[in-house]
Here is the input.
Amino acid sequence: MAKFHVRIRAGGIELDVKAEGKIDGEAIELLKQIVQPFASALLRNNNRTELNRHDVDNFQQHKHSSIYSSFKETVLSVFRYGQWFTSSDAGEAYMDLHDVRLKKPTVITYLRRMEREGILVSKRHGRMIKFRLAPHLCGSPQEGPNRIIIYDSID
Here is the structure.
């Protein structure tokens, strides 16, 4: 009979999880779902603001996916008007909204993934790469005969 026991303490918060019996993949997945929100709360309570590779691996691959999902929602919300932004701008926006600092390579990976999915477009200025929402997502004017431009002249 397999036994599993995890005890996590931080400040005044304690989590104690025990499992006995057949511990298969389904049971491990259930344990991850129980422990993950608590671990995330501990990170926030300890004012920890930087995720490193070890942290992401410890919180399992599904947590990494949800980081990408929340990053994508952040970009879609903050840059919804189609303005150009850099990876630094996107990382700062994520930090402002979620109180977690993502490393620069992670931010760039997520931005490139969003570009492959058709959510973003990019352009290069020397060494700098700028991104913006794809025109169909931000409602920016499209080229064509239905486009109306009004110029007011001030005399």
About this structure: The CA atoms of residues 115 and 121 lie 6 Å apart. Strands lie at 2-10, 13-21, 120-125, 128-133. The helical segments are 25-45, 53-58, 60-78, 87-98, 104-116, 135-138.
